[in-house]
Amino acid sequence: MALLTQDDLININMQLQKADSNVRKVTGLDIKGVCKALYGVPRNSEKVGIVPITSGNGIIGNFSASLHAITKYFGFDSFVTDMPDVSGYYEAVRNGAEIILMADDHTFLAHNLKNGKIANNQPCTGVIYAEIASRHLKADSKEVLVVGLGKVGFPGAAHLMNKGFKVYGYDADSVLLKKAVSSLGIAPFNLENPKKFSIIFEATPCANTVPEAVISKNCVLSTPGIPCAISEELQEKYNVELIMEPLGIGTASMLYSVL
Ligand code: NAI
Ligand code: PYL
Ligand code: MG
Questions:
Q1: Count of domains for the chain
Q2: Does ligand 1 lie within 6 Å of residue 147's CB atom?
Q3: How many helices and strands, by DSSP H and E, does the chain display?
């Protein structure tokens, strides 16, 4: 999994507020509203325990603090444990956590200890960024381009298919592209024969993965991918509505999915 860096998470509150404003502009809903549309209106708001995990590459600077800020931004009572790992998990439960948030280098989970529901950040991120893209108020058709069909992109593409969109997909890994075509019924997108889209969803760890030939004026590019899929120059040239944020939107999707 491509790992976040401390620098990706600088001033997460400002990044989240900016992303929320862009989501409202594109969809007419805020991030919370999109989560409610996806998962239903929560009856209550559980206490969240955030447990730092030292395995693998270890603690990422700003990661736990960002989760603390993100959970508070969405109205949850939350705390970061003093201890990491097993001791931190014990501390979280002993201090009344009803939902556990923790991440190693491969899995970022939300586990609701009351109802047993568990969520993985990758599909939850793909689904919410795809949902936001699908709600583009000024879309000129139900055609969408998905670039990147991995652990985030594939669930996002599946969500768009389930919503009745015409999904064109591309992945640099031909095996993954074939799998998405055969299992989801998406259309393989041919970069040699490009067309314009007003809705684009990208989930790759590479820059410049969305070519100019597919970008239409005022299109929405909904992308959790880090770094950004298009240059600032292209974003300005086509007035692209960019939905991009390093952690909070995906975390909101996880939390609402386990309430
Ligand atoms: P992954 O490795 O499972 O999937 C990435 C896919 O992109 C791969 O199938 C790869 O073949 C494809 N790809 C790479 N370069 C490409 C190119 N030039 N054109 C087309 N396809 C290309 O990774 P995963 O877990 O799906 O994550 C994708 C990105 O999303 C990563 O950058 C990750 O850090 C980020 N991410 C962001 C989150 C957020 O909340 N903003 C949450 C989770 C992941
Ligand atoms: C969840 C993020 C989104 C993109 N990549 C994922 C990532 O960086 N995962 C690793 C998270 C490790 C956290 C570390 C800590 O500080 O607790 N174990
Ligand atoms: Mg996010």
A1: 2
A2: yes
A3: 9, 11
- The model's pTM is 0.98
In a domain, 127, yes or no: yes
| 220 contacts 241 by C-beta, under 8 angstroms | yes
Residues with CB under 6 A from ligand 2: 1-4, 52-53, 59-60, 63-64, 103-105, 108, 121, 247
Q: Ligand 1: does its nearest atom lie under 6 Å from the Cβ of 152?
A: yes
**CA distance to 17, 132, 164, per residue, from 26 (Å):** 14, 8, 19
Q: For residue 6, what is the DSSP state?
A: G
Q: Quickly count: other Cβ atoms within 10 Å of residue 254's Cβ.
A: 24
pLDDT band at 45 (very low <50, low <70, confident <90, very high): confident
What is the distance in A from the centroid of ligand 3 to the CA of 115? 25
Residues 138 and 217 in one domain: yes
**Residues 6 or more apart whose Cβ sits within 8 Å of residue 183:** none
**Cα–Cα distance measured from residue 51 to residue 3, given in angstroms and rounded to the nearest whole number:** 17
| Residue 41 pLDDT class (50, 70, 90 cuts) | confident
Domain assignment present for 1: no
Q: For ligand 1, is residue 19 a contact (CB within 6 Å)? A: no
